[in-house]
Write a structure and sequence with these properties.
310 residues; alpha+beta; 2 domains; 6-stranded mixed sheet; 3-stranded antiparallel sheet; 9 helices; 40% helix; 17% strand; globular; binds zinc ion
Length: 310
């Protein structure tokens, strides 16, 4: 018997559990072992503690997870796996919860293997919900050179530039949550980064304040970003060596892999919380890809890391 198995009611030791027959789970054609607790009489099964407990269509989970991080819209994913689009929508929320836990473990395993992170790049990705008149910002931190995401958040910001007046007229004043959202990221960072870490950012004034507040002993290097030389390049501008390449490349990747972040898409975010879910699923798949990639790339720090956690 599985030694980690516990009674869901009284959490008694596995020695006090008895096998209690099987049932056939039609959803994925599996035979599931049932158990009974000798202490409290509770009956349960080996599926009780599974994250997919009581789900129908658990077969679609891995495909949905992969497709969500491969620039596919929810309607196409629904068609491919043969479910309603509402199922895909709720599976995104479910998957994000799992991915969030997994992403934390990934980061912890990375820190255990390599020790403290010495340099971090931080920036905001700006996107919108429903219309460009309702912009949202995504502050994010990644490991310099390795692009491993360390934390992010999603916040609404008021419309800016030419759309500002029109947006106020049509949708009223829009709250600016960006400072609080950035602060939450820094709060999280302060638990994983050493106090003498080095930050690389652009000239945003709020970054300076946060770094001083949360990392008074940190080094802060500021790089003023160029304007793009070619229209449509977005974060990846090929003008000269980019000191903020890691964070810019991460932003370019999420724009390419999360369909609602594509430039000129009609798959827009309707709920900022779902965008956060979607990014968490992306990070999960991205970190898995890093693990696979590292087996074919020589001499990378990641390679040993992969051995350590796989
Ligand atoms: Zn029990």
């Amino acid at each position: 018997m599985d030694v980690t198995l516990r009674c869901p009611r009284c959490a008694t030791a596995p020695a006090n559990l008895v096998r209690d027959g099987h049932y056939y789970r039609a959803d994925d054609s599996k035979s599931i072992q049932r158990y009974q607790c000798k202490d409290c009489g509770k009956k349960f099964s080996s599926a009780t503690h599974n994250p997919a407990y009581r789900q129908k269509k658990r077969r679609i989970n891995s495909t949905v997870r992969f497709c969500l991080a491969s620039n596919m819209c929810q309607r196409d994913i629904a068609e491919i796996v043969g479910v309603d689009v509402k199922t895909v929508r709720s599976r995104l929320v479910w998957q994000a919860k799992l991915s969030r836990v997994k992403n934390k473990l990934y980061l912890q395993a990375y820190l255990d293997e390599y020790g403290p992170i010495d340099t971090v790049q931080f920036d905001d990705l700006v996107t919108f919900e429903h219309t460009k008149m309702k912009p949202i910002t995504v502050p994010m931190a990644v490991v310099d050179g390795e692009r491993i995401p360390l934390g992010f958040n999603v916040a609404s910001i008021p419309a800016f530039g030419l759309l500002a007046a029109k947006s106020r007229e049509k949708y009223g004043p829009r709250v600016d949550d960006s400072q609080a959202a950035r602060e939450a990221v820094f709060q999280e960072l302060s638990t994983v980064l050493p106090p003498d870490v080095r930050f690389k950012t652009d000239g945003h004034s709020h970054y300076k304040v946060l770094i001083k507040q949360y990392f008074p002993n940190a080094t802060h290097e500021i790089f003023i970003s160029d304007r793009g030389a070619v229209v449509g390049q977005g974060e990846l501008k090929k003008t000269r060596f980019d000191e903020l390449f890691s964070i810019n490349h991460t932003f370019a990747t999420v724009r390419a892999k999360i369909n609602r972040l594509n430039r000129r898409t009609w798959c827009t975010t309707k709920d900022p919380e779902r965008l956060a879910d979607h990014i968490d699923v992306f990070i999960d798949v991205f970190c898995d890809r890093l693990k696979k990639l590292s087996s074919s790339v020589n001499g990378l720090r990641r390679q040993a890391f992969v051995k350590a956690i796989s």
